[in-house]
Write a structure and sequence with these properties.
four-stranded antiparallel beta sheet, globular, about 10% helix, about 180 residues, 10 strands, mainly beta
Length: about 180
Protein backbone atom coordinates (compact mmCIF):
# COMPACT_ATOMS: atom_id res chain seq x y z
CA UNK A 1 0.00 0.00 0.00
CA UNK A 2 1.40 3.38 -0.93
CA UNK A 3 1.71 6.09 1.68
CA UNK A 4 -0.09 9.39 1.27
CA UNK A 5 0.41 10.95 4.73
CA UNK A 6 3.81 11.73 6.21
CA UNK A 7 4.01 10.69 9.86
CA UNK A 8 5.55 13.25 12.18
CA UNK A 9 6.04 13.79 15.89
CA UNK A 10 2.94 15.19 17.53
CA UNK A 11 4.01 17.32 20.48
CA UNK A 12 1.99 17.66 23.66
CA UNK A 13 0.94 21.19 22.63
CA UNK A 14 1.47 22.14 18.99
CA UNK A 15 1.10 25.86 19.72
CA UNK A 16 0.49 28.15 22.68
CA UNK A 17 -3.26 28.26 21.97
CA UNK A 18 -3.50 24.46 22.15
CA UNK A 19 -3.25 24.68 25.92
CA UNK A 20 -6.51 26.69 25.87
CA UNK A 21 -9.09 23.93 25.45
CA UNK A 22 -12.75 24.22 26.43
CA UNK A 23 -15.56 21.76 25.82
CA UNK A 24 -18.83 22.30 24.06
CA UNK A 25 -20.06 23.88 20.86
CA UNK A 26 -21.20 27.42 20.20
CA UNK A 27 -24.95 27.79 20.77
CA UNK A 28 -25.67 28.00 17.05
CA UNK A 29 -25.00 26.11 13.84
CA UNK A 30 -25.46 26.88 10.16
CA UNK A 31 -27.67 24.76 7.94
CA UNK A 32 -28.64 24.81 4.28
CA UNK A 33 -29.92 22.56 1.55
CA UNK A 34 -27.26 20.48 -0.22
CA UNK A 35 -29.01 21.21 -3.53
CA UNK A 36 -28.04 24.88 -3.12
CA UNK A 37 -24.29 24.11 -2.99
CA UNK A 38 -22.42 24.74 -6.25
CA UNK A 39 -18.90 23.89 -5.01
CA UNK A 40 -17.91 21.54 -2.23
CA UNK A 41 -14.53 21.28 -0.50
CA UNK A 42 -12.67 18.10 -1.36
CA UNK A 43 -10.98 15.39 0.65
CA UNK A 44 -7.27 16.14 1.12
CA UNK A 45 -4.92 14.33 -1.22
CA UNK A 46 -1.21 14.40 -2.01
CA UNK A 47 -0.08 16.30 -5.09
CA UNK A 48 3.10 16.56 -7.08
CA UNK A 49 4.51 13.39 -5.58
CA UNK A 50 4.70 14.84 -2.05
CA UNK A 51 3.00 13.35 0.99
CA UNK A 52 0.40 15.22 3.03
CA UNK A 53 1.44 16.67 6.38
CA UNK A 54 -0.62 15.65 9.41
CA UNK A 55 -2.23 19.10 9.35
CA UNK A 56 -3.19 18.80 5.66
CA UNK A 57 -4.51 15.26 6.19
CA UNK A 58 -6.91 16.50 8.87
CA UNK A 59 -8.75 19.27 7.01
CA UNK A 60 -10.99 19.73 3.99
CA UNK A 61 -9.43 21.37 0.91
CA UNK A 62 -11.32 24.37 -0.44
CA UNK A 63 -14.48 26.15 0.61
CA UNK A 64 -18.20 25.61 0.39
CA UNK A 65 -19.89 27.84 -2.20
CA UNK A 66 -23.64 28.40 -2.43
CA UNK A 67 -25.78 29.26 -5.47
CA UNK A 68 -26.61 32.92 -6.04
CA UNK A 69 -29.35 33.93 -3.64
CA UNK A 70 -28.87 30.87 -1.42
CA UNK A 71 -27.14 30.91 1.94
CA UNK A 72 -26.67 28.90 5.08
CA UNK A 73 -29.13 29.87 7.82
CA UNK A 74 -28.16 30.21 11.48
CA UNK A 75 -30.09 28.15 14.02
CA UNK A 76 -29.69 29.03 17.70
CA UNK A 77 -30.35 26.45 20.39
CA UNK A 78 -30.31 26.47 24.18
CA UNK A 79 -26.76 27.07 25.45
CA UNK A 80 -24.91 24.05 26.83
CA UNK A 81 -27.41 21.58 25.38
CA UNK A 82 -25.55 20.84 22.15
CA UNK A 83 -22.90 18.21 21.51
CA UNK A 84 -21.01 17.30 18.35
CA UNK A 85 -19.38 13.86 18.10
CA UNK A 86 -17.30 11.98 15.54
CA UNK A 87 -17.33 8.19 15.96
CA UNK A 88 -15.42 5.61 13.93
CA UNK A 89 -17.74 3.06 12.33
CA UNK A 90 -17.65 0.14 9.89
CA UNK A 91 -15.80 -3.11 9.49
CA UNK A 92 -12.12 -3.60 8.72
CA UNK A 93 -11.44 -2.35 5.21
CA UNK A 94 -14.47 -0.05 5.11
CA UNK A 95 -14.05 2.21 8.13
CA UNK A 96 -15.62 5.63 8.09
CA UNK A 97 -16.70 8.29 10.60
CA UNK A 98 -20.18 9.16 11.83
CA UNK A 99 -20.52 12.88 12.54
CA UNK A 100 -23.47 13.62 14.81
CA UNK A 101 -24.92 16.90 16.05
CA UNK A 102 -27.42 16.83 18.93
CA UNK A 103 -28.98 20.09 20.10
CA UNK A 104 -31.96 21.08 22.19
CA UNK A 105 -34.20 24.09 21.75
CA UNK A 106 -36.19 25.18 24.79
CA UNK A 107 -39.93 25.64 24.20
CA UNK A 108 -42.03 23.84 21.67
CA UNK A 109 -43.37 26.42 19.23
CA UNK A 110 -44.58 26.73 15.65
CA UNK A 111 -41.36 28.19 14.18
CA UNK A 112 -39.22 25.34 15.56
CA UNK A 113 -41.73 22.77 14.32
CA UNK A 114 -41.66 24.55 10.95
CA UNK A 115 -37.86 24.20 10.84
CA UNK A 116 -38.19 20.48 11.55
CA UNK A 117 -40.79 20.14 8.81
CA UNK A 118 -38.55 22.03 6.35
CA UNK A 119 -35.48 19.86 7.09
CA UNK A 120 -37.21 16.47 7.37
CA UNK A 121 -36.17 14.18 4.53
CA UNK A 122 -33.95 16.82 2.89
CA UNK A 123 -30.29 16.58 1.92
CA UNK A 124 -28.43 19.07 4.12
CA UNK A 125 -25.13 20.80 4.66
CA UNK A 126 -24.25 21.90 8.20
CA UNK A 127 -21.35 23.79 9.75
CA UNK A 128 -20.76 23.36 13.49
CA UNK A 129 -18.22 25.37 15.49
CA UNK A 130 -16.84 24.29 18.84
CA UNK A 131 -15.98 26.70 21.64
CA UNK A 132 -12.29 26.50 20.64
CA UNK A 133 -13.13 28.00 17.23
CA UNK A 134 -12.71 24.77 15.24
CA UNK A 135 -15.33 24.24 12.54
CA UNK A 136 -16.72 20.94 11.26
CA UNK A 137 -18.52 20.36 7.97
CA UNK A 138 -21.38 17.89 7.86
CA UNK A 139 -22.24 16.88 4.31
CA UNK A 140 -20.31 16.55 1.08
CA UNK A 141 -20.96 16.18 -2.63
CA UNK A 142 -21.51 12.41 -2.40
CA UNK A 143 -23.13 12.12 1.02
CA UNK A 144 -25.26 14.93 2.49
CA UNK A 145 -26.09 15.38 6.15
CA UNK A 146 -29.59 14.42 7.26
CA UNK A 147 -31.89 15.20 10.13
CA UNK A 148 -32.65 11.91 11.90
CA UNK A 149 -34.96 10.83 14.70
CA UNK A 150 -34.08 12.30 18.09
CA UNK A 151 -35.75 12.10 21.48
CA UNK A 152 -39.37 13.24 21.65
CA UNK A 153 -40.32 16.88 21.93
CA UNK A 154 -41.84 17.30 25.37
CA UNK A 155 -43.76 19.74 27.50
CA UNK A 156 -42.19 18.21 30.60
CA UNK A 157 -44.25 17.10 33.59
CA UNK A 158 -43.60 19.60 36.36
CA UNK A 159 -43.58 23.38 36.08
CA UNK A 160 -39.80 23.28 36.61
CA UNK A 161 -39.23 20.78 33.75
CA UNK A 162 -37.95 22.06 30.44
CA UNK A 163 -40.41 22.32 27.57
CA UNK A 164 -38.01 21.10 24.89
CA UNK A 165 -37.40 20.22 21.22
CA UNK A 166 -34.36 17.99 20.59
CA UNK A 167 -32.82 17.91 17.08
CA UNK A 168 -30.32 15.36 15.72
CA UNK A 169 -28.30 15.42 12.50
CA UNK A 170 -25.95 12.76 11.10
CA UNK A 171 -23.39 12.51 8.32
CA UNK A 172 -21.02 9.67 7.35
CA UNK A 173 -17.60 10.73 6.08
CA UNK A 174 -14.67 8.58 4.95
CA UNK A 175 -12.30 10.74 7.03
CA UNK A 176 -12.19 12.72 10.26
CA UNK A 177 -11.70 16.36 9.15
CA UNK A 178 -12.04 19.98 10.26
CA UNK A 179 -13.37 22.72 7.99
CA UNK A 180 -11.21 25.78 7.37
CA UNK A 181 -12.94 27.17 4.25
Amino acid sequence: MSECIQLADLEEAIGCADIDNVGGIKMKFQVGFADDVIAWPSLPGPSGGSLLSLLQAGQWEGALQMKAGASLKTVYFTDETGVFTITMQGESGCESYLYQLDVSRAKMEAAVFGLENALRGRKLVIIVEDKNGTKYLMGDEKCPARMVAADASTTGTAVTDKNNVPLRFQYSCPRKLVYVG
